[in-house]
Write a structure and sequence with these properties.
Distance between the termini: 26 Å
Helix content: 10-25%
Oligomer: single chain
Strand order of the largest sheet: 1-2-3
Number of helices: 1
Strand content: 35-45%
Radius of gyration: 12 Å
Structural class: alpha+beta
Shape: globular
Amino acid sequence: EIRLSLVGSEMCIRDSLGSYFYKWQAVEAMEENKGDLYIFVDKLLALIIPASTFTNEAEKEELKAFIKAHI
């Protein structure tokens, strides 16, 4: 299981291997492809949030708005 936490100055990803922190300044772009969200922390590395993560479209739009406000 992977958990994503969004806080004011950074986002944290936790999985069975550890925790990874990214400051919002590291995020270069956010894109959507076939419902999945891609948060690019450089040109080749993206954090992928699958469409199946969201219970509805409004939840996804809320996350997108939050991310856009911080990058």
